[in-house]
C-alpha cells in the first residue's frame, strides 16, 4: 500500500510539472525568425556546397568513366588491329619470299638454258665435224674403191691379153727357140706385172679395210651379212655377222642370223651356240627357229631338238 502511494505521488508531480510547462508563455516571434533564418541560410549553404561537391564528384566520375570506356574500347580494338597487322605483315613476307624464289628460279632457268644452249651448240659442232669426217672418209673410201677397181680391171685386161698371146704361141705351127724365149719373157712380164699390181693394191686395200672397220657399225655388218646370205655367200655372211657381234656381243639379231648361216652349212655346234645366245637375249627366237627353214639341215640333231623344246 505504501508503494502505491509513492507511485501516485510521483505521477501527480509529473502531471503538475507538465501543466506548468504548458502554462508557460510562448517566446517572441522575432527572435525565432532570426535564428531560423540563420539556420536556413546555413542549411542552404550546406546544401549548395553539397550540390557543388556532388556535381564535381559526378563530373569527375563521368570523366573517369569516359576515360575507362575509351581505354576499354582501345583494348578491345587492339587484338583486331594486331591481327590485321599480322595478316598484312605475313602477306608482305610471303610476297617477298615468292618474289625472291621466282628471281632465283629465273636465274637458275636462265643459267640452265645458257648451259643447255652451249651444250647443244657444242654437240651440233661435234656432230658437224664428225659428219664432215665421215663424209671425207666415205669419199676417200670411194676413191680407194674406184682406184682398186680400176687396177683390178687393168689387171684383168692384161691377163686376158697375155692369155691370148699364150694361146697364139701355143697353137703356132712354127715353133722355134725364139717363141720359147718370147713365152718365157711373157711369163716373166706377167709375173712382174702381177707382183707390181699386188703391191700397189696392198696399201689401198689395207686402208680400205681400216676405213671400213672405222665407219661400219654392228647394224651395217648385219645388213652386209644378210646380203651375203641372200646371195648364198655363207662364209662372207658369217664373217660379217661375227664382225657385228664382235662390236655388240649381245646383238641378238646378228646372233640368230649367224646361227641360220651356220645351220645351212651344217656346222651344228656353231649354229646351236649362236642360237642359244640369241634365245637367252630374246626368248621369242625359240619359236622362230621352230618354223625357220634355214634350220632344216640340223633339225634332227638332238642338241637342236633339246634347245627349241626347253
Task: Give the secondary structure arrangement, pairings included.
Elements: H1 2-23, H2 29-170, H3 177-215, H4 218-230, H5 234-247, H6 252-264, H7 268-281, H8 285-291, H9 302-309
Task: Explain the overall architecture.
- The chain has 310 residues and is an all-alpha fold.
- It has a domain at 217-310: Tetratricopeptide repeat domain (Serine Threonine Protein Phosphatase 5, Tetratricopeptide repeat, Alpha Horseshoe), CATH 1.25.40.10.
- The protein has nine helices and no strands.
Could you say what the CATH architecture of the domain at 217-310 is? Alpha Horseshoe
CATH superfamily of the domain at 217-310: Tetratricopeptide repeat domain
Low-confidence stretches: 170-214
What is the count of DSSP helices, taking H or I runs of 4+ residues?
9
Overall mean pLDDT score?
75
Report the major sheet: none
Query: What portion of residues is helical?
Result: over 70%
- Looking at how many chains there are and whether they match, the oligomeric state comes to single chain
CATH topology of the domain at 217-310: Serine Threonine Protein Phosphatase 5, Tetratricopeptide repeat
Task: Supply Rg.
Answer: 68 Å
Content of β-strand = under 5%
**SSE string, helices as H and strands as E:** HHHHHHHHH
Q: Which overall shape is indicated by the principal axes computed on the Cα atoms?
A: rod-shaped
Classified by CATH, the class of the domain at 217-310 is Mainly Alpha
Total beta strand runs: 0
- Structural class, from secondary structure content? mainly alpha
Cα-to-Cα separation, first versus last residue: 158 Å
